[in-house]
Amino acid sequence: MATDTVSDAGNVSADEPRYVGDEAELDDIVAENDVVLADFYADWCGPCQMLEPVVENLAADTEAAVAKVDVDANQQLATAYGVRGVPTLVLFAGGEQVEEVVGLQSEDELRSLIEAYAE
Fold first, then answer.
1. Which residues form the catalytic set?
2. For residue 14, what pLDDT is reported?
3. Out of 57, 67, 88, 92, which could bridge 83 as a Cys pair, Cβ 3.0 to 4.6 Å?
4. What is the DSSP letter of 10?
């Protein structure tokens, strides 16, 4: 499992997903980036595992910052966003939640969703 490392606060939009430990950390990522895709997942979830390479590609190839939230380790955060099933992907733009999709999505669908809010 990946570990979260301290990164430059001004350059949060990395080429790989950031693992979020709590609501304050997610709030910081949302505040510091124009577009953020939050992936609420669970290690035991098959569709979540299938979505992992898609999310990694989106982090590397789009303007969106990608946050990963383990719902088992962050139950309060998942509850705060009304996550009832995994994977759930929440898109933020301009600091506000603008989209939510549940279930396995194609890379093209997610890329289009991100691009609709980028710029």
1. 45, 48
2. 63
3. 88
4. G
